[in-house]
Amino acid sequence: MTAHSHTDQPALTKNQSLVYDALTDAKAPLSAYAILDGLREHGIRAPLQVYRALDKLLELGLVHRLESLNSFVACSNSECGARETMVFAICVKCNKVSELADDRLEAHLGALAAADHFTVHAATVELRGICGQCRSDA
Amino acid sequence: MTAHSHTDQPALTKNQSLVYDALTDAKAPLSAYAILDGLREHGIRAPLQVYRALDKLLELGLVHRLESLNSFVACSNSECGARETMVFAICVKCNKVSELADDRLEAHLGALAAADHFTVHAATVELRGICGQCRSDA
DNA sequence: ATTGCATATGTTATGGTGTTACACAATAAA
DNA sequence: TTTATTGTGTAACACCATAACATATGCAAT
Ligand SMILES: [Zn+2]
Ligand SMILES: [Zn+2]
Ligand SMILES: [Zn+2]
Ligand SMILES: [Zn+2]
């Protein structure tokens, strides 16, 4: 598996920028169709225009897909490029997502899998719970 | 979050048994629609019949949903009832899934989240890679 | 037995998510 | 200019999941 660096990215195309900006402006994960709806006034009319932009942004490591939500977020952790496995903490109350890094998690999961003779290529780790802000408010 | 025991389950209904048996017989995760197709000869005709059975089986802890595949597997680990977080190792070559338990993983993820003032209620951990059998075959 | 309640079922229609196929445009080598 | 690569636009389709409504079944408590 290859870790990607966020430096020296090629300039994004128009559609890619529109989608990326939509995600960076959002305070919560967006589905592809939510992105589509938000960009209709900017000329985006079909799902494929969004999905193609997302594919590229995912490949560049600029956005991530949250499997448990069928949604996407902009990368928000500078350590992300140096790691293979990031953890997403999803608040069920306000829908905010924190992208967390952990030095030992990858080794931990790799060792667990190795005990079953399994070689890990990629990991999805998504936590559901309550964020600090929402816990304070409660 | 509540851990469930697999003992003393209520008897499954007809549809629940059909769906559960389909999953236990399968060698790989099944989508709801794949289950539906396999059960048409047994009188299952609509997606809801499958989804309702799956909801109950999920609640009983007899099956699990794999978020990254939009698919379902029968529980295959006896330690599952005693834990909140299980790990699914999905072979990208043969599609087999191993359900792994780890005593320390839950604490590990909890601590990582706590550093961000996040309280974990549930975790999704899905690994993609190559199983031992497929590695031997290669 | 009758009533009442909770759970399960059957069916239709609808909505949300993601891809295939094909045509065309822009960009960058060669 | 020719060629190859990448990006774009559109329509149609396939897959995943739920809403709404009607009916049936099992199991109390009277
Ligand atoms: Zn990231
Ligand atoms: Zn929150
Ligand atoms: Zn299990
Ligand atoms: Zn395999």
Automatic annotation (TrEMBL), chains A, B:
InterPro entries (alphabetical): FUR, Fur_C, WH-like_DNA-bd_sf, WH_DNA-bd_sf
Pfam families assigned: FUR
Alphabetized UniProt keyword annotations: DNA-binding, Repressor, Transcription, Transcription regulation, Zinc
Entry's family note: Belongs to the Fur family.
Record's protein name: Fur family transcriptional regulator
